[in-house]
Amino acid sequence: MPAAIILIGSPRKGGNTELLADAFLEGVREAGGDGEKIFVDDLNIHPIGPVGDVLSERVDVHADDDFLPTLERVLAADILVFGAPVYWQGLPAQLKAFVDRWSCYYVNPLLVDGMKGKIFAALVAHGAPDPHHHKWVTDPIQVWAAHFEAPWAGHVSVVAQKQGLVASKPEALAAARELGKKCVEMAQA
Length: 189
What we know:
Layout: E1 3-8, H1 16-30, E2 34-39, H2 67-76, E3 79-85, H3 93-100, H4 109-115, E4 119-126, H5 135-147, E5 152-159, H6 170-188
Helix pairs in contact: 1-6
């Protein structure tokens, strides 16, 4: 059974990002998979510390926080989804801190082998009316997927300036459900 994990970067529970994530997980379960949400804001994950120039000698100076247990959960999944509102043309800091910590393990087989082939996707809510505003979040995620030779399943983005507004956008919720199904199908292929 394919497993999905959604890293939610929004600090707002019950918000638009979580509503998209719930719809995505409905699709995952309808397709025969399972999954969970992780609210990164609930975790104690420090920003990256000094790592050094020699990739094979890098040390994670903050290894005593929640990063490694969270990374292990991510690596155990077949599907990695980034649930992220666009904050000032990028990912929320909580989620970016998690991703930046990958640099401590840049050539470590734990990360490199664990991410290879994982299905990547994104769920993005943003307040800007520009329909391409999601690219501030989705473009970097696609680069990360390519780095790990991981397939990009796609994204769902929605303009939603107020908490819970996504609930009144059935087309966005349907798109998130369909993306969940697609990810499971890709994981089973």
